[in-house]
Amino acid sequence: MDEVLTIAEIEAKFDAEWILIENPSTDESLEIRSGTVLWHDKDRDEVYRRAVETRPKRFAIVYTGKMPRDTEIVL
Predict the structure, then answer these.
(1) Residue 71 domain-assigned (yes or no)
(2) Residue 1: pLDDT band by 50, 70, 90 thresholds?
(3) Over the stretch 26-62, which tens digit does the pLDDT of each residue have?
(4) pTM value?
C-alpha cells in the first residue's frame, strides 16, 4: 500500500478498523487529510505492534468506526 489516500478514501475502504498512517497530511487544526496506509486491523493492539516494528518517522493512528456511546477519550 504505497499510494496516498484521502481520509475519506481510508474511511470508506477500512470501515471500523484501526489504521496506521505514514506521513499524514494535516490541516491547520491538525486533522488528518491524507496519508499512506501502512497497516490496518480490527485489533488496535496489532496496529500498535506494527507501529513499533516499522518505526515510521511521522505517523498517525486513527479509528474509522463509531466509538461506543459510553466511551471516553483521554488525550
Answers:
(1) no
(2) low
(3) 999 999 999 999 999 999 999 999 999 999 999 999 9
(4) 0.86
How far is Cα 13 from Cα 22, in angstroms, rounded to an integer? 16
- Domain containing 44: what range? 4-63
Under DSSP, the state recorded for 57 is: S
Contact 51, 18 (CB under 8 A): no
Backbone φ and ψ for 9, nearest 5 degrees, come out as -65, -40
Q: Which residue, among 56, 52, 60, has the nearest Cα to 18 in the 3D structure?
A: 60
Q: How many domains does the chain have?
A: 1
d(CA 34, CA 4): 7
How far apart (Å, rounded) are the C-alpha atoms in residues 69 and 3? Answer: 34
With respect to residue 75, please indicate whether it lies within any of the assigned structural domains: no
Distance between CA 57 and CA 67 in Å, rounded? 28
